[in-house]
C-alpha cells in the first residue's frame, strides 16, 4: 500500500496496533533527556520501583539551565543548580549516559543527538522538549513529549500514540540571496498559523528543501511545533547520508550499507495521499521577521507593523492589538526602523556551525552598532570548538560580540541570559512569546543573516541593506567552512571512551572524559 | 490516578486565545524538581494584574477553566498541567487545544474538553454575567452544564475511559511486556545505541568570561 514517509516510519515501530479506540503502541529508538522535564519522571520511576528499560537507547545532557559564562564555577542560581544536580544523581542511579557542563559533548539536546550520529533516518526519537521535531530533518519521526511520557518511555521504551494526519509542505524553486531556511519556516508559520499544523506531521518537500544542508533542514523541522505540528520530516537523501557517515555512532561496514539501503526506501510513495497540502514558491520569499508575540505574527522585512484596525477577524484584531501593546510598537512603523537592544545568535534553531559561519561572513572586519549588545551562543561545546578551530570566535570578538559557552541560553532565559523588562531583541531562536526571553522582554524572531545585519545597523535589517563586498557569497549555505580559516575538528578518528556518566564505581563529580566542576 | 465521572465547580472565563504554556507557567518556575506546589506559578505574569480573572473573588476558587482557542500551545512542559491542577482546576474547556497539552492533561487527570466556538461564547457570557456560577462536567454524557444551559464537549474515547477508570498509562503498557520484548528482537543492528558511548576525542572546554 502506498504510504507517506511518516506512515512508513510509524508502521515500522508498531509494537501493537490499537483496537477499539485505544492508541497504537510505538517503539522508541532514541530517548533524549535534559534536566528540566526529567526530574519528576525519574521520581515517578523511583516511587513505583521501576527501572529504565533501555539505558542503551537513552542519553542525557545539561542545556536549559546551564550558564554560558564561568562554567567552571558553581552555578549561582540555586534552583538551576538543584535541577542539574538532580539530573546527575538520576543519571548515576539509573545508569543513563550524561554529558555534563564542561564535557566536550555537552550542548543543546537537539544538537547533541545529530552531532554524535545518534539521530538517523527511520528512527522514532522523543524528548521532553517540543523542539524534538528538529530531528525530523533526518527522516526520523521525532516529537516532543511531556514528563509523564518521559517516565513512560524510560519505563517501557514505548509510547501509546493516536494516529496523526499528514500534511505536505512543498517549497518550489530556489531561495533568493540573503534568505535562509529560517525565512522559509517563518513564512510557512505566518501562512498556516500557529495552530495550522495541529494533529499533523508535516513533510517538507520540493526543490528548495532538497537544496538545503542538514543544518538548514534542522532549522525548518525545529520550528514545526510553532505551526502546531508535533513533528516535521524531510526524506533522507545523499545530503543526509554524507552528514552521518563517520560520526561517532553512525553504523559502520555492513551495517552502514544495510542502513543506507533501507534509508533509501524512506520516501513518500508517488501515489501516496496527504491529508493536506501547502505550496510555497521560494522565489517569492524575502527575509522574514516577527512583529508580535507568537511565531505566526511574522512579515517580510520590507513590510510595516500591521494596523490592527485593518484586520477583519475580531479575534485576530484583538490579538494583534495586545501584541503591539506588549511589543511597544506603533502600527504602521516600517519594520526596518525598529531599533533593537540585543542581538541573540544561538539556540537549537540557529546555533549550529553553519549559522555561526554565515554570521561571521557578514560581520567579519566590521564593528557592531554601539547601541546594542550581541550574544553568540553555540548550540554545543563541539560547535564552539569547531568555530574556534575556524577562527570564528576571533571574528565575533573583534566585531564586539560576546562569545559564550554552549546551551539554550537566551532562547528561553532559564539561565542568567535574559532580556530586561522592555528590552528588545532580534533573536535567531524560535519563540517570541511574552516574557520568553525574560519578563517584559520583546522578541523579534530573525534568521542569522538578519541578526548579523541588525547587529551592524542597529535596526532590523537584512544583508541587502549592507554594503557587502562582492567577494562575500552569502548565498552559500552548504556547510563549508569560511575560506582559509582553519580545519574542522570533525573527521578525526572516533574513539571509544568510557561511559561519561558515573555509573557504579566511577568517581562522582569527575566522570571519565570530562573535567570536574569545581 | 483519581477516577473522575462528574465534576462540579466554579467556572472561570478566560477570554483569551493562544494561551501558550509560557503564559500558563513561565519558564522560570520549571526549575523545581518536585511534582507538586506549582499553584503560585499559574498564569504568573497575569496574576499581578488586579483585573485578571483569577484575582476576582468570585472566580478565585474556580475549578473549571473556560478558555479561548489554541489553549496550551508552545512548549511541551507538563508543568502547565501540574500548575492548573495544583491551583485547583479539574477541567479545561476550549474550542481547540494544542496536541501535546491535551495529551499531558489526559495523563494527569485533567479533563480537556473541546466545545464549539458558539458554545464557548455561551459559557463565557453565563460566567461573566453571573460570576461564581458553577459548571458541572459529566464525562459519561460528555456535557458541561452551567445554569440551565447544557453544551456537549468532545474528548477521545480512550482518554475518557482512562480518566473514568483512573488508569495509569505505564501499568497498562507493561501488561504488553511480552510484545515489547518480541519487537526488540526484530530491531536491525544499525539502529543506534548510546552505550557503549562513542565520541570524538575529549577536549578541555575553556570557560567564557564576562566582558
UniProtKB/TrEMBL annotation, chain A:
Annotated region described as Disordered, given as residue ranges: 419-440
Reaction it catalyzes: (2R,3S)-3-isopropylmalate = (2S)-2-isopropylmalate
Record's keyword terms, sorted: 4Fe-4S, Amino-acid biosynthesis, Branched-chain amino acid biosynthesis, Iron, Iron-sulfur, Leucine biosynthesis, Lyase, Metal-binding
Positions bound to [4Fe-4S] cluster: 348, 408, 411
InterPro entries in UniProt: 3-IsopropMal_deHydase_lsu (IPR004430), Acnase/IPM_dHydase_lsu_aba_1/3 (IPR015931), Acoase/IPM_deHydtase_lsu_aba (IPR001030), Aconitase_4Fe-4S_BS (IPR018136), Aconitase_4Fe-4S_dom (IPR036008), IPM_dehydratase_rel_enz (IPR050067), IPMI_cat (IPR033941)
Domain Aconitase/3-isopropylmalate dehydratase large subunit alpha/beta/alpha: 7-458
Pathways involved: Amino-acid biosynthesis; L-leucine biosynthesis; L-leucine from 3-methyl-2-oxobutanoate: step 2/4
PROSITE patterns (alphabetical): ACONITASE_1, ACONITASE_2
UniProt keyword Iron present: yes
Membrane spanning residue stretches: none
CC cofactor: [4Fe-4S] cluster
Entry coiled-coil feature ranges: none
Free-text remark on how the cofactor is bound: Binds 1 [4Fe-4S] cluster per subunit.
EC class name: lyase
Pfam families: Aconitase
SUPFAM superfamilies per the UniProt record, alphabetical: Aconitase iron-sulfur domain
EC annotation from Swiss-Prot or TrEMBL: 4.2.1.33
Stated family: Belongs to the aconitase/IPM isomerase family. LeuC type 1 subfamily.
Biological function: Catalyzes the isomerization between 2-isopropylmalate and 3-isopropylmalate, via the formation of 2-isopropylmaleate.
Assembly description: Heterodimer of LeuC and LeuD.
Entries under NCBIfam families matching the protein: leuC, PRK05478.1, PRK12466.1
PANTHER family noted in UniProt: 3-ISOPROPYLMALATE DEHYDRATASE, HOMOACONITASE, MITOCHONDRIAL-RELATED
Protein name: 3-isopropylmalate dehydratase large subunit
Organism: Promicromonospora umidemergens
Gene: leuC
Automatic annotation (TrEMBL), chain B:
Signal peptide: none
Aconitase A/isopropylmalate dehydratase small subunit swivel domain mapped to chain residues: 1-111
Keywords: Amino-acid biosynthesis, Branched-chain amino acid biosynthesis, Leucine biosynthesis, Lyase
Catalysed reaction, written as an equation: (2R,3S)-3-isopropylmalate = (2S)-2-isopropylmalate
EC class name: lyase
The keyword GTP-binding appears for this protein: no
Domain of life, per lineage: Bacteria
Presence of the UniProt keyword Lyase in the record: yes
Pfam families from the UniProt entry: Aconitase_C
Record-listed E.C. numbers: 4.2.1.33
Known pathway: Amino-acid biosynthesis; L-leucine biosynthesis; L-leucine from 3-methyl-2-oxobutanoate: step 2/4
Task of the protein: Catalyzes the isomerization between 2-isopropylmalate and 3-isopropylmalate, via the formation of 2-isopropylmaleate.
Entries under PANTHER family matching the protein: 3-ISOPROPYLMALATE DEHYDRATASE SMALL SUBUNIT, 3-ISOPROPYLMALATE DEHYDRATASE SMALL SUBUNIT 2-RELATED-RELATED
Family statement drawn from the similarity comment of this UniProt entry: Belongs to the LeuD family. LeuD type 1 subfamily.
Description of how the protein assembles with itself and partners: Heterodimer of LeuC and LeuD.
Protein name: 3-isopropylmalate dehydratase small subunit
Species this protein is from: Promicromonospora umidemergens
Organism placement in taxonomy: Bacteria, Bacillati, Actinomycetota, Actinomycetes, Micrococcales
Gene: leuD
Amino acid at each position: 500500500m502506498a504510504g507517506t514517509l511518516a506512515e512508513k516510519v510509524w508502521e515500522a515501530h508498531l509494537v501493537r496496533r490499537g483496537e477499539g479506540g485505544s492508541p497504537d503502541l510505538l517503539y522508541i529508538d532514541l530517548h533524549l533527556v535534559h534536566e528540566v522535564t526529567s526530574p519528576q519522571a525519574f521520581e515517578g520511576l523511583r516511587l513505583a520501583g521501576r527501572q529504565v528499560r533501555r539505558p542503551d537507547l537513552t542519553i542525557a545532557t545539561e542545556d536549559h539551565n546551564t550558564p554560558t559564562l564561568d562554567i567552571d564555577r558553581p552555578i549561582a542560581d540555586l534552583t538551576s543548580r538543584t535541577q542539574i544536580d538532580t539530573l546527575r544523581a538520576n543519571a548515576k542511579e539509573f545508569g543513563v549516559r550524561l554529558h555534563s557542563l564542561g564535557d566536550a559533548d555537552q550542548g543543546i539536546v537537539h544538537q547533541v543527538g545529530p552531532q554524535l550520529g545518534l539521530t538517523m533516518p527511520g528512527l522514532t526519537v522523543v524528548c521532553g522538549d517540543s523542539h524534538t521535531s528538529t530531528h525530523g530533518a533526518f527522516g526520523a519521526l521525532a516529537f516532543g513529549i511531556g514528563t509523564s511520557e518521559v517516565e513512560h518511555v524510560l519505563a517501557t521504551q514505548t509510547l501509546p500514540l493516536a494516529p496523526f494526519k499528514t500534511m505536505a509542505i512543498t517549497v518550489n524553486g530556489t531561495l533568493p540571496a540573503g534568505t535562509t531556511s529560517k525565512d522559509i519556516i517563518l513564512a510557512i508559520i505566518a501562512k498556516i498559523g500557529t495552530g495550522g499544523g495541529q494533529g499533523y506531521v508535516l513533510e517538507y518537500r520540493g526543490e528548495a528543501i532538497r537544496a538545503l544542508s542538514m543544518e538548514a533542514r534542522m532549522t525548518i523541522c525545529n520550528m514545526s511545533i510553532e505551526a502546531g505540528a508535533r513533528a516535521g520530516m524531510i526524506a533522507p537523501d545523499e545530503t543526509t547520508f554524507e552528514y552521518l557517515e563517520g560520526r561517532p555512532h553512525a553504523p559502520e561496514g555492513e551495517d552502514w550499507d544495510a542502513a543506507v539501503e533501507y534509508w533509501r526506501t524512506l520516501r513518500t510513495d508517488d501515489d501516496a495521499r496527504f491529508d493536506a497540502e501547502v505550496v510555497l514558491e521560494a522565489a517569492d520569499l524575502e527575509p522574514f521577521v516577527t512583529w508580535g508575540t507568537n511565531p505566526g505574527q511574522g512579515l517580510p522585512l520590507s513590510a510595516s507593523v500591521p494596523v490592527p484596525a485593518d484586520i477583519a477577524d475580531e479575534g485576530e484584531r484583538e490579538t494583534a492589538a495586545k501584541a503591539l501593546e506588549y511589543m511597544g510598537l506603533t502600527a504602521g512603523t516600517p519594520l526596518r526602523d525598529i531599533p533593537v537592544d540585543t542581538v541573540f545568535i544561538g539556540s537549537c534553531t540557529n546555533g549550529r556551525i553553519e549559522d555561526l559561519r554565515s554570521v561571521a561572513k557578514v560581520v567579519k572586519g566590521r564593528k557592531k552598532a554601539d547601541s546594542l549588545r550581541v550574544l553568540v551562543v553555540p548550540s554545543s561545546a563541539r560547535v564552539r570548538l569547531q568555530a574556534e578551530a575556524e577562527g570564528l570566535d576571533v571574528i565575533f570578538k573583534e566585531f564586539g560580540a560576546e562569545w559564550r559557552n554552549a546551551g539554550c541560553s537566551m532562547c528561553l532565559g532559564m539561565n542568567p541570559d535574559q532580556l530586561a523588562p522592555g528590552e528588545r531583541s532580534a533573536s535567531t531562536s524560535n519563540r517570541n512569546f511574552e516574557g520568553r526571553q525574560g519578563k517584559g522582554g520583546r522578541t523579534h524572531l530573525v534568521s542569522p543573516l538578519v541578526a548579523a545585519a541588525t547587529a551592524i545597523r542597529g535596526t532590523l535589517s537584512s544583508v541587502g541593506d549592507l554594503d557587502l563586498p562582492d567577494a562575500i557569497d552569502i548565498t552559500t549555505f552548504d556547510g563549508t567552512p569560511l575560506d582559509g580559516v582553519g580545519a574542522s575538528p570533525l573527521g578525526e578518528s572516533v574513539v571509544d571512551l568510557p561511559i561519561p556518566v558515573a555509573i557504579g564505581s566511577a568517581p562522582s563529580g569527575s566522570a571519565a572524559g570530562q573535567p570536574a566542576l569545581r | 490516578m483519581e477516577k473522575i465521572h462528574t465534576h462540579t465547580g466554579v467556572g472561570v472565563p478566560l477570554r483569551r486565545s493562544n494561551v501558550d504554556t509560557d503564559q500558563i507557567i513561565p519558564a522560570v518556575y520549571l526549575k523545581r524538581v518536585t511534582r507538586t506546589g506549582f499553584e503560585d506559578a499559574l498564569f504568573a505574569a497575569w496574576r499581578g494584574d488586579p483585573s485578571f480573572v483569577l484575582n476576582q473573588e468570585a472566580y478565585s476558587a474556580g475549578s473549571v477553566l473556560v478558555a479561548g482557542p489554541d489553549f496550551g500551545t508552545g512548549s511541551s512542559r507538563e508543568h502547565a498541567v501540574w500548575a492548573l491542577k495544583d491551583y485547583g482546576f479539574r477541567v479545561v474547556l476550549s474550542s481547540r487545544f494544542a496536541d501535546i497539552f491535551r495529551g499531558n492533561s489526559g495523563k494527569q487527570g485533567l479533563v480537556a474538553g473541546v466545545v464549539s466556538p458558539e458554545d464557548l461564547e455561551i459559557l463565557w457570557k453565563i460566567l461573566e454575567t453571573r460570576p461564581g456560577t458553577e459548571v458541572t462536567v459529566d464525562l459519561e454524557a460528555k456535557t458541561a452544564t452551567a445554569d440551565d444551559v447544557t453544551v456537549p464537549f468532545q474528548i477521545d474515547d480512550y482518554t475518557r475511559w482512562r480518566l473514568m477508570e483512573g488508569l495509569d498509562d505505564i501499568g497498562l503498557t507493561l501488561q504488553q511486556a511480552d510484545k515489547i520484548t518480541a519487537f526488540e528482537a526484530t530491531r536491525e543492528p544499525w539502529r543506534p545505541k548510546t552505550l557503549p558511548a562513542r565520541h570524538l576525542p575529549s577536549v578541555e572546554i575553556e570557560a567564557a568570561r564576562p566582558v
